[in-house]
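Quarterly update from the structural biology core.
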Amino acid sequence: MGLITSIGNDRATVGQNLIDLRHGIENPDFLTPDSSPVKVAGTVKDFDVDSSDPEDWIYPVEYAVPRATIRSFSPHVLYAWCAVKQAIQDASLSDEDLTNPDAGLYSSSGGSMRSIHQHFQKMDRRGVMACNPLAIVASIAGTLTFNLVATLGIRGSSTGMVSACASSGHALGMALDEIRLGRQKRMLVVGAEDCNFESIVPFCGMRALSLETDPNFASRPFDSKRNGFVGTGGSVCLVLETETEARRRGVTPYAKFTGWGQGSDGHNVAISHPEGQGLKDSMQNAFKDAKVSSSSIDYVNAHAPSTPIGDASEMKALKATFSKSQSIKVSSTKALTGHGLSLSSIMEAAFCCLALKEGFLPGSANVSSPDPEIGHLHLLRETIQEQVTRILSNSSGFGGANVSLIFEKA
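Predicted structure, tokenized:
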């Protein structure tokens, strides 16, 4: 795995911050203008990508990007470049492992709102023919796929998934299917989002963001006083491969990805089904795919973005899926990171794999007054040291897209 997140840019830091419940939410300068009602974000540290010219960006020196390559990047593509390079090293992959037809790449991002905005401004100011010739491939939703596939020399399956906050969950699930069908031996899966004014503030119009000014209380999933999500950006890359390949290469996996499911609400373009119908279907489909029962799940990493409606819908879905006698352990790591939109599913999948590998379950931070609707669910308010066997991770997106992923201890 490779991680560029608000709570750390390497595995050790991220793991420790999950254990310590140390969040990455701040009051960044780009949200200080009066035009921004929201004042908090899960910031990406050690990166300065404010300039409209990528060649002026400042980022960790170990991830040096060739000048000709970075010219078609938007900020989230740079984050992804770093996460992918980290994952390649972590997995001990050679160039040959990546550049043969048996290796593919699936990605997910919403594109770069900032880059699109800046390119249109230049076009309006100076005319169509003054546009950057790389403007399109540096900004639209497919920019993550275009750049990574080209620069890494990927020859296997490649595409991008766009289903809002379920995007990288879909990418992981479909990458798993690609391997199961024998089409690929290895898949790199990458999720990434910008973290700037243009990527976060538009959600104010939906009344979806927390207007808290104190970073310590802004994101509080499952709290009765939750009032919206906190935006974040960054990138996470996970390498999936067959067990045969892992054994051949002599590498030790973090976890085994055993199944996934999806289900749609068919209800509303922007808000979850009030009873969590699509999420219930998604979880049941994941159980069928992994050939397990709900009673075999030890912990759920909930989607729970800290919105009044979203959290309530998921609580109902979870209570309907897991019996009272099971007292399933549940938490949301978005209290620490903020909500990464299309990045969130793969970021939380990585957290689940770390938890399985290191023997802990992350707590749900900032809960001072648990929502009474939590009912018989066992909400973890502190991280606990416990080695479990099987974890479920949920994600939900606009239009009622829901994805559930199941991981087991390797």
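The mean pLDDT is 96.
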